[in-house]
Amino acid sequence: MSKAYDRVRWDFLQAVLSKYGFPDNLIRLIMNCVTTVSYENKVRVLDGVKVSYSSWVKLFLLHARGYKVLHHIDGTPAQAKTDAKLDEWQEIDAHVLQWIYGTLSDDLLERVLEDASTAQAAWDRVKNIFTNNKGARAAALENEFSTLKLESMPSLEAYCQRHKVLATQLKDVDAAVTESRLVLELVHGVAQIL
């Protein structure tokens, strides 16, 4: 079944937006959104287990830079309330905020979602979840890293991947695992089965 949306000429849409006086950066953002695949398919859903915070940040920053909206989450001050471009800034900020919310697991979304938030404020709340309380988080991750058993995993590949994810998460809380220790943990787990 074909829909009218499937037959839109993107150059026509861009010309109409320009003709009606939409700002260039908003037109660019809209065109990026409608001419590319879903944003959520590019930045994986952050759950802290399958997708680590550091991986999510790297992907999110890459796409924010590509869409030229990095200034909404990098600490750049928001537009002044008296600025003529405030409405435009708020509209783009709402899109970035939707992207942040759309790439969080349900559990994280419940912890981060707030009324009348900016993208920067939501970005900071996500960051705080993963970077505050580093000592306790490092201890819990270290315990899982050290006690993970191959027989508790569905496959050897899953076992190795989980160790790698835990090593990345430990690095995020300033408790980096050396490569030699990672290899020793993996070998030790395999040796227990043999």
Number of domains: 2
Report the average pLDDT across residues: 86
Cα shape: elongated
Radius of gyration: 21 Å
Beta-strand fraction estimate? under 5%
Approximate helicity band:
55-70%
Largest β-sheet summary: none
Total strands: the figure is 0
Compressed to H and E, one letter per element, the order equals HHHHHHHHHH
- Uncertain segments are none
- Category from helices, strands and their pairing: mainly alpha
Distance between the termini: 56 Å
- Quaternary status: single chain
Structure, described:
The chain has 194 residues and is mainly α. The protein folds into two domains: 9-131, no CATH class; 134-193, no CATH class. Helix content is 63%, strand content 0%. The protein has ten helices and no strands. It has helices spanning 10-19, 24-35, 39-42, 53-66, 86-102, 106-112, 119-131, 134-147, 156-172, 179-193. α5 (86-102) packs parallel to α7. It is elongated and about 70 Å long. The N and C termini lie far apart (56 Å). The relative contact order is 0.09. The mean pLDDT is 86.
Sum up the structure in keywords.
single chain; 194 residues; elongated
List the helices and strands and how they pair.
Elements: H1 10-19, H2 24-35, H3 39-42, H4 53-66, H5 86-102, H6 106-112, H7 119-131, H8 134-147, H9 156-172, H10 179-193
Helix pairs in contact: 1-2, 5-7, 8-9, 9-10
What's this model, at a glance?
With 194 residues, the protein is mostly helical. The protein has helices at residues 10-19, 24-35, 39-42, 53-66, 86-102, 106-112, 119-131, 134-147, 156-172, 179-193.
